[in-house]
Amino acid sequence: MLLYETYRLTTEIQLFDEEARQGVVCIPAFLISRRLAKLLVEDLPVPLIFSLIFYFMTGFRADGPQFLTFFAVILLEQYIAVCFATTCVAISRHFAGASLVANLAYTLQSVACGYFIQSNTIPIYVRWTKWTAYVVRVHRIEG
After folding, report:
1. Which of 8, 57, 135, 139 has its CA 20 to 30 A from that of 70?
2. Contact between 2 and 85 (Cβ < 8 Å)
3. CA 99 to CA 121: how far, in whole Å?
4. Which of these, 25, 107, 81, 78, lies nearest to 13 by C-alpha position?
5. For residue range 4-44, what is the model confidence (pLDDT) as tens digits?
6. How far apart are CA 90 and CA 16, in angstroms?
7. Exposed/middle/buried for 32, CB within 10 Å: 0-12, 13-18, 19+?
């Protein structure tokens, strides 16, 4: 989601820059209208489909409130990825630079949160980086 949103935003930011130069649109209006336009097409259905497939395929409890909590976390992660992509595009207006920033940050977050190595084996002076990661490592809890 992060790179896809980064790519799309780099294609749309050129139009925004031109309209902002002409005084037609402001930053909050651009960002809010983008999300509202994608709300029913993308922002809700994509995390819902992912949640339905992943939640029941992994054998989590078939409990309504548990599923809604899981879905809420996945939805929140998507919006964080969108905000992070916006930050990457704000750093570099071109896809090459923005994707470089996004990939670097995502790789550091993936390492820090325990995808590749256990967080308790990371040296103590960089262990705090696990709290900067927006990605969630899912643990299956028997209950």
Report:
1. 8
2. yes
3. 29
4. 25
5. 999 999 999 999 999 999 999 999 999 999 999 999 999 99
6. 12
7. exposed
Nearest one of 49, 38, 87, 90 to 71, comparing CA atoms: 49
Distance from C-alpha of 59 to C-alpha of 48, rounded to nearest angstrom: 17
The pair phi, psi for residue 59, each rounded to 5°, is: 85, 25
Q: What's the pTM?
A: 0.82
CB 51 within 8 A of CB 138: no
Domain residue limits, the chain: 2-95
